[in-house]
Design goal:
The complex is a heterodimer of chains A (275) and B (622). In chain A, 56% of the residues lie in helices and 15% in strands. With 275 residues, chain A is an alpha+beta fold. Chain A is globular, with a radius of gyration of 26 Å. In chain B, the strands form eleven sheets. In chain B, strands 1, 15, 16, 21 and 22 form a five-stranded antiparallel beta sheet that branches. In chain B, helix 5 runs antiparallel to helix 6, helix 5 runs antiparallel to helix 9 and helix 6 runs parallel beside helix 9. The chains are: A alpha+beta (275), B alpha+beta (622).
Chain lengths: 275, 622
């Protein structure tokens, strides 16, 4: 798109503003109309978000104030309200987890730290508090292998966007390569495919995260059948991370990293990836 | 698990070896002598073997016709309560000095539907034109104790645990539970054997695994597959299937101990019958004789306070890691209990002292070293957190259990495990936490006491970017669908590029495609002219459309085709030629004279031009 430097030093697009001034009807012609429409959309989206954020910010601040005053139950209620009405963010989940921790609810604290890590996987503050909560709960999580750490460089959304973007770029490379027969486009395509493969591999490794859940209650019984009257074979500690493998009515069939498996009431475990 | 027990029956091979092959040889080699041979007067006899059976068993009836090489199978007269099935025939012939001996034997399987004495009357057999009669035979069928030929419960005097098969009589199918001892303690796990005896020739399948008769005992895990062995009991060969398992008594007193099993006898086990599907299954429950076992209660005298019900003979060992830690760091105490006994009742070990420690419930994992879970080791892992710096050892662990062999309680204790607990604790934020007097960290707390601000990274002040769901975008159908767009674009581009390449390599096809495209363009121009009632433009487009089609047909440039070419290249007598010429002539006339047509007339011309175009396309295809 052509442009020229104006006297005031700003770059303006002569296919846009200047033509609108000289010919108002050009507003309805491409590409001027397209950019106008795009700008309006962006402005509306930004406005809506700022409006929503300001509402969320108020309640969030109120919750922070309750937390600072030692009213953890009130803080939890307010943080949960923000999450229910406006959605999740890593700082919100982090503060909520802190409030649960202070309130002595280790299981829910660990659950919300885990959720915060879903949004920002490498956040040092979240990891530190999660480590502390686990230690307080007597849980020991072995250090992950290097390849597991590598898959946590990005969030699942990050890997998904990278995979989608690299796939699109490889398609562009392929299209341009077909049309122009030039070698650089083929190189772009191959490189993008490599990135796409790496991103999808990381996504595949983390696919099990969909079934990760956290035990909420201390001494949660693991039953041999999905019934309240079934015999308990062992117990899980609050904050233990388990994998949900099956469901029968109000019971989940779970397996923990030690290989312990059985049925646990769905009131006593909760998925990390909440709907 | 359903197992089919098959005891090898060699009758089939015997029939082949002793009957069919010799018969074929005799027919092939000695047949010429038979006609001239002299034989004794033929006679028929009937024999039952054995003459006495139990209900559910079958017996073989042989009808032997001596002095005849061939004879049709005799028809057995009906006897109420008995069923006869012809299972085969055998022939044994000898020629000595031209004199024939031996004969043919027809075999029947006889089964009884009730007990009692049955007389099979004389059986008539036809040999040539003679009718022979056998002797009547008597079959006695006895009642059995159960659905099958299970022996009645022997008297206690005859039972001996050391010789479990001493009471075995000549029954066809039996089951026994063999226990090495007669006195149990409550909760004691006693390894036992369950044996299923099948006499040779009997085939059966189990519909269930063995279970215990009474409610005073519980049956442990059965071995995965029964062991198979051969035994000779009272002169009868048996195949014995043995399950290893263990029983435990649940209440004191004298209780009968026995086992039972659902089983199906396969009647008609002859290979011929199996070949033709003539087999029957007889379902029933097989009961073992019951022996009375004395179950003793665990003594109350000398019972340790921490006794949790473990009965057996055990050893313990313990280890801890890491052994150099800071206050508040966890230690994993691994305790292993090995030996034999009732590991299910081994719920945990006791720490001698928990002063200065925070303890968590242990996890347990049992690793059996045999199939039935009688011997093995149970590993407990327990998290311990020291809360003081003056702790020097991980406290010893204790196990109290009852030893049924020594008939008394025993307590084992591990030795203390050395431990170094440092005086400072690194918080999660990397700062050290000062300790109070006595060594306990001032700010560290567990359980209900909330942690203090020194430990937790403080709250965030900004809520940040809010997202409506924690579910990854990869699960969003729009996101998934969007991934297909670039792929579709790539596929489309590839298809276009491939089409271009194909056209580049085939000039004829390229010309046809170009002509079709030009015809479509002129068609559009013709319709546009029709809408504008522009007569010259209409006819110019119509002529050009026909030129494009003819140019492709004749492989010449369309714009060079003139009326003269039509007359020379198209046959003059064709209506098509006339139509084409008319369009060309009218186009010329309109161009030079400025003649105009009405919309209706132009529409008529449009139809005519299209018909002409179709005609040219058909001609071009030919």
């Amino acid at each position: 798109m052509r442009g020229e430097r104006s006297d005031s030093g700003f770059w303006i697009l002569d296919s846009g503003f200047r033509s609108w001034i000289s010919d108002p009807s050009s507003v309805f012609r491409f590409p001027s109309s397209f950019f106008l429409f795009l700008g309006l959309c962006l402005w509306l989206m930004l406005g809506c978000r700022l409006f929503a954020a300001s509402g969320g910010e108020d309640l969030f601040t109120q919750a922070n104030r309750a937390f600072a005053g030692g009213h953890y139950a009130d803080a939890i209620r307010d943080y949960e309200t923000v999450a229910t009405k406006q959605g999740f963010s890593a700082p919100l989940l982090f503060n909520l987890a802190n409030a649960y921790f202070r309130d002595g609810k280790i299981g829910r604290a660990i659950l919300n730290y885990e959720r915060a890590l879903v949004l920002t996987p490498k956040d040092a503050d979240i990891e530190a508090n999660l480590r502390l909560a686990r230690k307080a709960s007597g849980l020991f999580i072995p250090d992950p292998a290097w390849w597991q750490r590598a898959t946590r460089l990005l969030s699942m959304d990050g890997w998904a966007w990278l995979a989608g973007g690299s796939l699109a770029l490889s398609c562009v490379g392929g299209i341009m390569g077909l049309l122009s027969k030039r070698r650089p486009w083929r190189f772009v395509m191959v490189l993008s495919l490599v990135v796409f493969s790496a991103a999808t591999t990381c996504l595949g490794v983390r696919w099990g995260d969909f079934n990760r859940a956290v035990v909420l209650a201390p001494e949660t019984p693991v039953r041999i059948g999905p019934f309240d009257t079934a015999k308990s074979s062992s117990a899980l500690m609050a904050g233990e991370v388990v994998e949900i493998q099956n469901r029968h009515e109000n019971y989940f069939f779970i397996r923990n990293p030690d290989g312990k498996s059985g049925w646990v009431s769905n009131q006593q475990v909760e998925r990390v990836l909440k709907d | 698990m359903k197992t089919r027990f098959e005891v090898r029956d060699e009758r089939f091979e015997m029939v082949f070896r002793t009957s069919i092959l010799p018969l074929l040889l005799i027919w092939a080699v000695g047949g010429i002598f038979v006609s001239s041979a002299h034989a004794d007067e033929p006679r028929a006899t009937a024999t039952l073997r054995p003459a006495e059976i139990s209900l559910g068993e079958s017996v073989q009836l042989n009808v032997a016709i001596e002095g005849a090489a061939t004879a049709a199978a005799p028809i057995i007269p009906s006897v109420e309560g008995l069923e006869f099935n012809h299972v085969g025939q055998s022939t044994q012939l000898q020629f000595i000095n031209g004199k024939m001996s031996g004969g043919i034997t027809h075999m029947y399987r006889v089964t009884s539907s009730r007990s009692g004495s049955f007389t099979i009357p004389a059986i008539k057999a036809r040999v040539g034109d003679k009718i022979l009669q056998t002797n009547p035979v008597v079959l006695r069928v006895e009642k059995s104790a159960s659905s099958f030929s299970v022996p009645t419960a022997p008297s206690p005097a005859r039972q001996s645990p050391s010789s479990p098969t001493s009471d075995v009589s000549s029954q066809a199918v039996m089951i026994r539970l063999i226990s090495p001892k007669r006195d149990f303690f409550v909760g004691e796990l006693v390894p036992v054997e369950i044996k299923l005896y099948l006499r040779h020739g009997i085939q059966a399948s189990n519909n269930s695994l063995p279970v215990l008769n009474g409610a005073a005992f519980t049956l442990g895990k059965l071995s995965n597959r029964p062991e198979r062995a051969e035994e000779n009991i009272n002169g009868f060969p048996y195949t014995v299937f043995t399950w290893h398992t263990a029983v435990a008594a649940v209440k004191p007193g004298e209780h009968p101990l026995g086992t039972q099993m659902q089983i199906a006898l396969i009647l008609g086990g002859d290979p011929f019958e199996r070949l033709f599907g003539r087999v029957q299954e007889k379902q029933g429950t097989l009961q073992s004789p019951e022996e009375t076992v004395k179950v003793l209660p665990l003594p109350t005298e000398g019972r340790p306070a921490d006794f949790s019900g473990a009965v057996g003979q055990f050893q313990i060992s313990a280890s801890a890691s890491p052994t150099q830690i800071a206050v508040g760091d966890p230690v994993t105490l691994k305790m292993t209990v090995s030996g034999t006994g009732n590991f299910d009742r081994l719920s945990g070990l006791t720490l001698e002292s928990t002063d200065g420690w925070k303890t968590y419930p242990p996890s347990a994992k049992f690793e059996p070293t045999d199939e039935i879970g009688y011997s093995g080791k149970k590993v407990f892992e327990q998290a311990l957190i020291p809360q003081k710096t003056d702790i020097k050892n991980v406290p010893p662990v204790k196990l109290s259990y009852f030893d049924p062999e020594a008939r008394k309680y025993a307590t084992l204790s591990s030795s203390p495990l050395p431990l170094q607990v440092s005086a400072v604790l690194l918080s999660s934020t990397g700062t050290t936490i000062p300790l109070t007097q006595g060594g306990a960290p001032r700010s560290l707390s567990f359980g209900p006491r909330p942690p203090t601000t020194e430990e937790l990274v403080p709250n965030k002040m900004n809520v940040g970017h809010l997202t409506p769901s924690l579910h990854p975008i990869i699960l969003n159908p729009w996101f998934q669908g969007a991934q297909s767009l670039p792929l579709c674009a790539l596929a489309l581009t590839w298809a276009v590029a491939r089409r271009r390449a194909r056209l580049a390599g085939d000039p004829g096809r390229a010309r046809a495609v170009a002509a079709s495209r030009a015809v479509r363009a002129q068609f559009g121009a013709m319709d546009a002219a029709l809408c504008d009632r522009d007569t010259p433009a209409f006819f110019t487009a119509a002529r050009r459309m026909l030129q494009e089609r003819l140019g492709e047909n004749w492989n010449i440039k369309p714009e060079t085709i003139a009326l003269s070419d039509i007359e020379t290249r198209l046959p003059g007598d064709l209506p098509l030629t006339h139509d084409v010429r008319k369009v060309f002539e009218t186009a010329d006339a309109v161009a030079y004279s400025g003649q105009t047509y009405s919309s209706e007339a132009l529409n008529e011309w449009r139809k005519a031009v299209l018909e002409t175009l179709k005609g040219l396309e058909k001609r071009g295809e030919r």
